[in-house]
Design goal:
Length: 363
């Protein structure tokens, strides 16, 4: 079977990571041929070049260039894919004409978050629902996300993210990572996420300051980049700036997470967060805000703690508890790793997509 995958870009986001992981998972399937189109030349996940997938860049220049529709149609005529699987809002919109004109079924993979504040005139909801009538299947990575966007029961399928444990097989030495970022404190609390959109770094910074006022043996780390990075850097008081490290965009995120004692995610809305899966893969206890798919990912009080959104006190209390109770923190980390293997394995995700593809082609 031939599958044409479309993505808005291959930047450093969780949706793009999930796509790359799926392509990895299909490397041992001899009866499937993958073709990847990205509408941007921004490629963070350079390992894609080492995978068995044909890559085409159809750059949107200028951004609203209508010729993209034509170029994609021309490519579809050449490849003759059995299915088109889009992984973003714009890539789904670009796919619709080719899907209709060439009678190719379209899997819409746009639903990867789970906003709880959507209203009738919300642009996110409008753009998503605009694509639903033209989609054969809408594949989300959380039930909460499918519910939030009101995806019809007859068209929805939930396939959770899959984590490739080979990503943690060759980690950089902890002492090297500590030296690289100037980490001297005994304890490390970290959060991975972009500095825009649904990530609540304001709460995370407030939590750090609260803990700095109680302990001087903790370093907080923020891994990621984004347009609001400098805004949050400026929120750190001068006397605490040496204890709060902003790493910027990093490729070897797993080696940095490996030095964490606790993994944190303060967020407003998520599907299934790749950051949480990375924490669990490395056996780190987690403290995560309730919202969307986080309740489908974390087993509260077993693999970590779920806390209310925008509640620095509640989050700080749970982090302090884990810092003060090392044995329970380690136990939660081990339980998290087991939960990952049972629920969010790469093989499980790949099999689910393979079955979806097979079912649609046979129908």
């Amino acid at each position: 079977m031939k599958i044409l995958l479309l993505t808005d870009n291959l930047g450093g986001g969780g949706k793009q990571r999930r796509l790359v992981e799926m392509i990895k998972g299909f490397q041992n399937y001899n009866d499937i041929e993958l073709f990847l189109v990205t509408f941007s030349d921004k490629i963070h996940f350079t390992e894609i070049y080492n995978l068995d997938v044909s890559i085409t860049i159809l750059k949107r220049k200028p951004k609203k260039n209508p010729m993209v529709f034509y170029h994609l149609l021309k490519l579809c005529k050449k490849i003759k894919p059995d299915l088109i699987h889009s992984w973003g809002t714009m890539s789904t919109i670009f796919a619709i004409p080719s899907s209709l004109l060439l009678n190719i079924r379209l899997i819409n993979g746009n639903i990867v978050d789970a906003p709880d504040d959507l209203h009738f005139f919300d642009k996110r909801l409008f753009r998503a629902r605009l694509t639903f009538p033209f989609s054969t299947i809408i594949a989300g990575n959380s039930i909460a996300g499918l519910d939030a966007y009101g995806v019809p029961k007859s068209k929805r399928v939930c396939i959770y993210n899959g984590f490739d444990t080979n990503r943690i097989s060759n980690l950089e030495n902890e002492s090297v990572v500590r030296k690289k970022f100037g980490i001297t404190a005994d304890k490390v609390v970290g959060m991975v996420g972009s500095f825009f959109g649904n990530k609540d770094y304001e709460t995370y910074v407030k939590v750090a300051i609260m803990i700095f006022e109680k302990r001087n043996d903790v370093t907080f780390i923020a891994v990621g980049e984004g347009p609001e990075l400098n805004k949050y850097k400026n929120l750190i008081p001068e006397n605490y700036r040496s204890q709060f490290i902003f790493t910027g965009l990093q490729r070897d995120v797993e080696s940095i997470i490996n030095v964490f004692d606790i993994g944190v995610l303060a967020t407003y809305t998520e599907g299934v967060s790749n950051a949480i899966l990375e924490y669990m893969a490395l056996s780190k206890p987690t403290v995560v805000t309730i919202g969307g798919g986080t309740v489908e990912t974390i087993e509260d009080e077993k693999t970590g703690f779920l806390v209310p959104q925008k509640n620095p006190m509640a989050m700080a209390d749970k982090i302090l508890y884990l810092l003060q109770n090392k044995e329970q923190a380690l136990s939660m980390g081990v339980a998290g790793r087991k939960h990952l293997e049972n629920t969010f394995g790469l093989e499980k995700m790949t099999k689910a997509f393979y079955q979806l593809y097979s079912d649609l082609i046979i129908e």
